[in-house]
Write a structure and sequence with these properties.
Order of helices and strands: EEEHEEHEHHHEHEHEE
Strand order of the largest sheet: 6-7-8-3-9-10
Largest sheet: 6 strands, mixed
Number of helices: 7
Shape: globular
CATH topology: Rossmann fold
Radius of gyration: 17 Å
CATH class: Alpha Beta
Bound molecules: adenosine-5'-diphosphate
Number of domains: 1
Length: 228
């Protein structure tokens, strides 16, 4: 069953001079449990593509289906509901609720589900990402890498169908980076979460089943694990 399907996705940004098309007819189809990396030089459209797949922005043309739901037919509110229900994020600039502590951020999805022992579970998840000692810190009191790890703990709490991560190892030291990568793939194995990773880290990309290489907003190559 297709968990994320993207068909002929094109994105044009309006601009003062000439409109700028940054994605050209990108298509792919991921099944439940797939692991997928999007690579390419800076400015090639990776983050734009991730935002469209996650329903954070709308394509100029083309379609996106998440868990069989066609996003481009939905209102802003309806897309937000799909995100809350099916999607997890590890984004540099779009992640934690700033008015809640790390612990509370992880607690939200557990409490929404009415899970018993939610606080204990949330603390265990923070411990798993190495942040038990930061449980009562607010996002602004955490480094970018720590915020990313709280997002990861929240994703474990949420067990989303698809997890989108933008440069998940981008600003982490090698040890933390290894820990985050291991956790991402544990989430994939334990919860069957489909991983969609934008990364410059070719070692990380090599661990996924499929890699899409973008250049100038076009797919220039798709590499399957068997060929890696
Ligand atoms: P990457 O993630 O591969 O670095 P991006 O998706 O961030 O690439 O950007 C692709 C292109 O789109 C770049 O030329 C960037 O300047 C442009 N771009 C991104 N967001 C906007 C926006 N909101 N308005 C106009 N241009 C944008």
């Amino acid at each position: 069953m297709s968990i994320l399907r993207v068909e002929n996705l094109t994105k044009t940004y309006p601009s003062a001079g000439q409109p700028l098309t940054v994605l050209h007819e990108v298509s792919f189809d991921l099944a439940a449990g797939d692991t997928f990396a999007i690579v390419g030089p800076s400015g090639s459209g990776k983050t734009t593509l991730l935002g469209l797949c996650a329903g954070l922005d709308r394509a100029t043309s083309g379609s996106v289906w998440v868990n069989g739901i066609q996003l481009d037919k939905l209102s802003e509110d309806e897309r937000a509901a799909v995100r809350n229900q099916h999607v997890g994020f590890i984004f540099q600039n779009f992640q934690l609720l700033p008015t809640l502590t790390a612990l509370e951020n992880v607690l939200v999805p557990l409490e929404l589900r009415g899970q018993r022992g939610a606080t204990q579970t949330a603390l265990e998840l923070l411990d798993r990402v190495g942040l038990a000692a930061r449980a009562n810190h607010y996002p602004a009191q955490l480094s970018g890498g720590e915020q990313q790890r709280v997002s990861l703990a929240r994703a474990f709490a949420n067990r989303p169908a698809v997890l989108f991560a933008d440069e998940p190892t981008g600003n982490l030291d090698p040890d933390t980076s290894e820990r985050v990568v291991n956790l991402l793939f544990e989430l994939n194995r334990e919860a069957g979460t489909t991983l969609v990773l934008v990364t410059h880290d070719l070692e990380l990309a090599a661990k996924t089943q499929r890699t899409l290489r973008l250049r100038g907003g076009r797919v220039v190559e798709e590499i399957l694990a068997s060929a890696k």
